[in-house]
Amino acid sequence: MAKTKVKKETPLMKQYNTIKAKYPDAMLLFRVGDFYETFGEDAIKCARVLNITLTKRGAGSESETALAGFPHHSLNTYLPKLVKAGMRVAICDQLEDPKMTKKIVKRGVTELVTPGVSFNDEVLQSKSNNFLAAVHFGKKLLGISFLDVSTGEFFTAQGTAEYIDKLLQNFQPSEILIQKQNRLKFNEIFGTSFHTFYLEDWVFQADYANENLTNHFKVKSLKGYGIDDLQEGIISSGAILYYLSETQHNKIEHIASIQRIQENNYVWMDRFTIRNLELYASTEANAVTLLNVIDKTISPMGARLLRRWLALPLKDITQIQKRQDIVKYLMDTPDFYDLVTYQIKQISDIERLVSKVATGKIHPREVIFLKNSLKAILPIKEAAEKSSNPSLKNIGKQLHDTTELREKIEATLFEDAPVNINKGNSIATGVSKELDELRAISTSGKDFLDQMVQREVERTGISSLKIAFNNVFGYYIEVRNSHKDKVPEEWIRKQTLVNAERYITEELKEYETKILGAEEKIGKLEQEIYAKLIQYLTRFIKEMQLNAQLIGQIDCLTSFATIATENSYVRPVLDDTTDLEIKNGRHPVIEKQLPVGEEYIANDVVLNRNSQQIIMITGPNMSGKSAILRQTALIVLLAQMGSYVPAQNAKIGIVDKIFTRVGASDNISMGESTFMVEMNETASILNNVSERSLILLDEIGRGTSTYDGISIAWAIAEYIHEHPTKAKTLFATHYHELNDMTNTFERVKNFNVSVKELKDTVIFLRKLVSGGSEHSFGIHVAKLAGMPTQVIHRANKMLKQLEKNHTSDDIKQKLKEAKEEEDLQLSFFKLDDPLLEDIKEEILTTNIDTLTPIEALMKLNEIKRMLTKK
Questions:
Q1: How far apart are the two ends of the chain, measured CA to CA in Å?
Q2: Which residues, 6 or more positions from 388, have their beta carbon under 8 angstroms from its beta carbon?
Q3: Neighbouring C-beta atoms of residue 652, cutoff 10 Å
């Protein structure tokens, strides 16, 4: 009977395959000597992502397999690339010294790094969070949770798919956990641009999640966190904790609480608005975003918090004013501002250092950084407590002075402690009597060897005699062959070399035992003392985290004070009205990019629900219509974050939703045309509008033919005007026909971005002035863009021809006829028809409020019979 050929396994590959079987979804970095190696499919992927050589192990033999690897000291260079490519990476290290074993070295996975779970400084970015998210699909609502394991911040919420989508856009998680069965549903609703990982369906069970969370937080119920009613949110949070245990992250005491994202507390911005306003990302390469302009934070805690403030602007006037008051105090009190900025520069990333304390991944030098950071908070605490601002006073009182903790670190570690605890010389003198004695033996032992060399040279007359050490037989005396005859009898020969002999003595052996024993004990003792120190530090996690959060807040507000001073921003007045008045507003991003000496043309915008609800802005392309729209939204946003704003003055009635439809954002890759995308986005606005909404519409209807476009734009503007919410709207268009709306709709007002016409050219003045504009100047713009003269000449000819055939008056006439026809249809009760009069009477005398569904159907049937009798 023929044997089936089995692929031979070497002992190393057998060990590799056993470990790989436990992590089938991860790339296994397998430590072999000084290299991390990958095999088989992993090697092919690794070589492609890292652009390294793909080779073979055991080439030509029965155990041949693909191989790719890199030196172990390059881990910090290559690991981030693998993780950013969306891979889960299992780091498999040697768990014992190869010199201490004759068998195959023990190996095991020491860390599993995924896009959303990492403590590695090279993978993380200091200015932004690295969120792991989980999405749970409930019967009606979706639950979502976000955890940054590197800082311990944990958030949860639940809501409609649209709300979850908005949160995903704002938090930009690096990895999302989803129930296996909902894979397609997730892609359909939220797209395929996120890194996703699928968990078994049983993980998403309410009881399991509840138990997971209560056990972790050591509480009986989740009421204390204000999330007990968020069933879908709790399930998604439980899935995150499950995933941490699955990825070997069990030391997570720094995840000390969970916060609810309260939908009603923050301004609503859908995904289109976040993208259109370019708050912290842009579709254009190298584009400057709003975050780039306003981020003057000094600490990583402040930078991360500022991103969240930008994603979640406030609606509570009192909270906004508290932030504004602190910004004013910082601007009015230069001494306090200088002290705060100087001290924050001395503070490291406390949040991430604390998470390293909890997981035991912190090295001695980082503990010193932590101690110095906590010390740098003290002057801020004292100055805040003495300040005349009540909110700052409160922050000062909440900051912990952490004296006990700092003194403990100071007493335990040397100030210049090394990065690696195994390097020795981390634990300070006086911490352990035994350690001090062993150190004395270690150093005096080495002195003794020097004395011994001197003594033996004098005794034997061997001038070139030296004492050295190797791993095979420890300390030895080496004598050159020329002096071999002078060697005393009691010396024991151990090794013969070409030019020398090596010997040992009883005395040398004794000291070797003493010295080597001391050094080994020193290493063990230092590690034990250090481990106890880290254990001690974990008792102060909450205090350190609170300090980090409060410093983050002060840092953000100091950043607001800095930008306000540097860029002449003013404090906006916020109230409960629905009015918006901006005097000489500027675009915060564009004004920073103007050439030196060129001033930004500021503009006024006044919107209210009584007389000027919709502003129709006409004007040529390139004249600055879009800039005016965007700057209005950005000014409102900045104001509701608590920042000062780029304007001469501003009065803002609290806005609860900002909607924008700006520019043509094609989604052709998803099979949708520009026009379809535009209509989807506009439909989303019209279906979610409220009386405190701010709507910005730019060039609606331009994705289709002129008549279609004008009709759609007109109908949308009319809908907003007639809607009971009377939402404030800026409507930029190049359809000058829409200027006629002001004759019919009382709250529609015309403005235009003025231009100066010269003989053959046009100058854009970028000033918003009252009244509509007549021309489009499209051909002038083409000329400015450097279009060939021949094309410009032909375009002018065609324009004259078209204007002769289809004047603007034709379009207006068609719109007027459409309106009259509609009025005719609506007024059919006015027709002189007795039957219609009877039906009118029947409808008017019916009391709808008391009608049951059955009675309503019967009444409708009755009216139908009246018509069919005719």
A1: 96
A2: 329
A3: 21
- Distance between CA atoms of residues 459 and 486, nearest Å: 10
Residue 256 Cα to chain centre, angstroms: 21
- pLDDT per residue over 196-228, tens digit each? 999 999 999 999 999 999 999 999 999 999 999
Strands 580-585 and 603-607: antiparallel
Q: Is residue 641 over pLDDT 90?
A: yes
649: pLDDT strictly greater than 90: yes
Question: What are the Cα distances from residue 415, in Å, to 154, 357, 364, 409, 418?
Answer: 33, 18, 9, 9, 9
Q: What is the 3-state secondary structure (H, E, C) of 161-223?
A: HHHHHHHHHHHCCCEEEEEHHHHHHHHHHHCCCCCEEEECHHHCCHHHHHHHHHHHHCCCCCH
DSSP 700-760: TTTTS-HHHHHHHHHHHHHHHHHSTT--EEEEEES-GGGGGHHHH-TTEEEEEEEEEE-SS
CATH of 11-113, one of 3.30.450.20, 3.40.1170.10, 2.60.40.1120, 3.10.20.30: 3.40.1170.10
- Report pLDDT for 802: 58
Q: Which amino acid would we find at residue 393? A: K
Bridge partners (DSSP) of residue 476 are 468
Question: Tokens for 618?
Answer: 């006409």
Domain residue spans in the chain?
11-113, 132-265, 290-428+535-567, 573-775, 788-824, 829-869
Confidence of residue 762 (pLDDT cuts 50, 70, 90): low
Mind listing the pLDDT tens digit for each residue in 52-74? Answer: 888 887 766 666 788 999 998 88
Q: Beta 196-199 vs 175-179: how paired, if at all?
A: parallel
Rounded to an integer, the average pLDDT of 839-845 is 78
pLDDT over 70 (residue 242): yes
pLDDT at 751 over 50: yes
What single-letter amino acid sits at 28?
Answer: L
Q: Kindly state the tokens that stand for 171.
A: 């938090």
pLDDT at site 583: 95
- Looking at CATH, the fold of the domain delimited by 132-265 is given as Nucleotidyltransferase; domain 5 (3.30.420)
CB 711 within 8 A of CB 817: no
Q: How many CB atoms lie within 10 A of CB 589?
A: 23
Question: Do the beta carbons of residue 358 and residue 395 sit within 8 Å?
Answer: no
The CA distance from 713 to 666, in Å, is: 19
Spell out the CATH class of 290-428+535-567.
Answer: mainly alpha
pLDDT in tens, 107-146: 988 888 988 988 877 778 888 999 999 999 999 999 999 9
CA distance 686 to 708: 19
Tell me the pLDDT tens digit for each residue of 562-618: 999 999 999 999 999 999 999 999 999 998 988 888 888 889 999 999 999 999 988
Task: Assign domain 573-775 to a CATH class.
Answer: alpha beta
* Per-residue H/E/C for 473-503: CEEEEEEEHHHHHHCCCCCEEEEECCCEEEE
Pick the closest to residue 712 from 721, 703, 724, 723 (CA basis). Answer: 703
> Could you give the residue ranges of the DSSP H alpha helices within 607-705?
625-641, 674-688
Report pTM. 0.81
Q: Identity (one letter) of the amino acid at 105?
A: V
Q: Which residue has the tokens 């509840």?
A: 210
8 Å CB contact between 639 and 650: yes
Q: Are 623 and 299 in contact (CB under 8 A)?
A: no
d(C-alpha 361, C-alpha 351), whole Å: 14
Question: 706 pLDDT exceeds 90?
Answer: no
Other beta carbons less than 10 A from residue 40's beta carbon: 16
Q: How many CB atoms lie within 10 A of CB 526?
A: 23
CA distance 299 to 271: 28
For 321-350, the pLDDT digits (tens) are 999 999 999 999 999 999 999 999 999 999
Weakest mean pLDDT among 70-74, 158-162, 683-687: 683-687
